[in-house]
Design a protein that fits this description.
Blueprint (H helix, E strand, L loop, with lengths): L2 H12 L3 H20 L5 H18 L9 H22 L7 H4 L7 H20 L4 H10 L7 H8 L6 H18 L5
Length: about 190
């Protein structure tokens, strides 16, 4: 599907054309799902975030100026919704053990330090990921989909030969490492 076709389909979907909407969902559903599942959220939360992502697209149809970047827009929107969920969920700690909150010794615990380091690593990786090409982002998302996709399926989705997936993955990961290294993070 080229840029002009996608632009026409987007306008039709914005005008309420169900077939156009179905075409968009069919084309980008795996990309959005792979992005959301990359955050390892529960199936229920992942499904909710998928719905929120599609709803945001409906709300923003008229603001999308570059149809060829729709995949990137959807992936970014899904990522932001996942991060938003994690921020909110991280604030709530359901427990019946109130004495845990009455102690002061948990503030300097190694577990907290490890969690902060993990968050810092994840943030650096997410920032670096957004700096590599859109085609690399899409390939890496598909390669990390849960459940895993076969190389044949990925090749078909991307319109590439099956034999190019592995070498392209290696080049994309090398670019990601280079961006992380340039940013001062040692992978």
């Amino acid at each position: 599907m080229d840029r002009d076709d996608l632009g026409v389909i987007l306008r039709a979907a914005a005008d309420g054309n169900q077939q156009a909407w179905d075409t968009i969902v069919e084309r980008f559903e795996r990309l959005v799902w792979a992005t959301v599942r990359g955050f390892r959220l529960s199936d229920e939360v992942s499904a909710d975030i998928m719905q929120i992502t599609w709803l945001k697209l409906v709300e923003k149809f008229d603001t999308i100026r570059d149809p060829e970047r729709l995949g990137a827009w959807l992936a970014t929107t899904a990522r932001h919704e996942c991060l938003k969920h994690l921020r909110v969920a991280g604030r709530a700690i359901p427990t019946d053990e109130t004495e845990v909150f009455d102690r002061d010794d948990h503030r300097d615990s190694p577990a907290l330090d490890a969690a902060l380091l993990d968050q810092e690593r994840d943030r650096a990786l997410a920032d670096a990921f957004l700096q590599i090409s859109e085609s690399c982002q899409e390939l890496l998302r598909l390669l990390t989909a849960d459940p895993p996709l076969a190389y044949e399926d990925i090749a078909e989705m991307l319109g590439r030969p099956v034999g190019s997936i592995g070498p392209t993955r290696a080049r994309c990961l090398e670019r990601l490492r280079a961006v992380l290294t340039t940013a001062g993070y040692t992978p």
